[in-house]
Amino acid sequence: MSSASSHPTAGPDRRTVVAAVGAAGLAAALTACGSGDDSAGTGSSGTESAATGAASDGGGTALARTADIPEGGGRIFKDQGVVVTQPTAGTYKAFSAECTHQGCAVGSVAHGMIVCPCHGSEFSVTDGSVKKGPAMKGLAPARITVSGDDIRLA
Ligand code: FES
Which UniProt keyword terms apply here (predicted)? Predict the structure, then answer.
């Protein structure tokens, strides 16, 4: 008698390890910024500068004191663009400080003349007339008012 023992064979336990090699595809994520024609707007922050006006109390802009103007001479106020002169004691005159030749600002007052540094024109402190060229025209008169010691631009 033979006994046959049959071993039930279990199914082959095969573990298949699948090593998934993930090939990291180099995604060419290079976003080529080629023809960029959309220009970003430049936000210019405008600063509003509040202009602080010159203190004017009662008509005209305070310019100088009479004592500031030498007798027989004058003084140039560059910011205001005027020359104030005192041809004779107690008489004050004012002229535009812009030379009539080519528009330079006159630079000095000396020996009774208002002198332009650009080309040497000279103007009379008395009436602004040309005393020496190349300017052909006298300085334009400017309006001032004198009250007490104060000289004001009218
Ligand atoms: Fe004054 Fe020429 S601009 S002399």
Answer: 2Fe-2S, Disulfide bond, Iron, Iron-sulfur, Metal-binding
Provide the pairing of β-strand 61-65 with 150-153.
antiparallel
Find all residues with CB under 8 Å of 55, minimum gap 6, and list them. Answer: 62
pLDDT in tens, 18-72: 555 544 444 444 444 454 455 444 444 444 444 434 444 556 788 999 999 999 9
60 burial level (CB within 10 Å; 0-12, 13-18, 19+):
middle
Residue 139 near ligand 1, beta carbon < 6 Å: no
CA of 65 from ligand 1 middle (Å) equals 28
Amino acid in the structure at residue 113 = M
Please, what are the domains in the chain? 61-153 (2.102.10.10)
d(CA 115, CA 131): 10
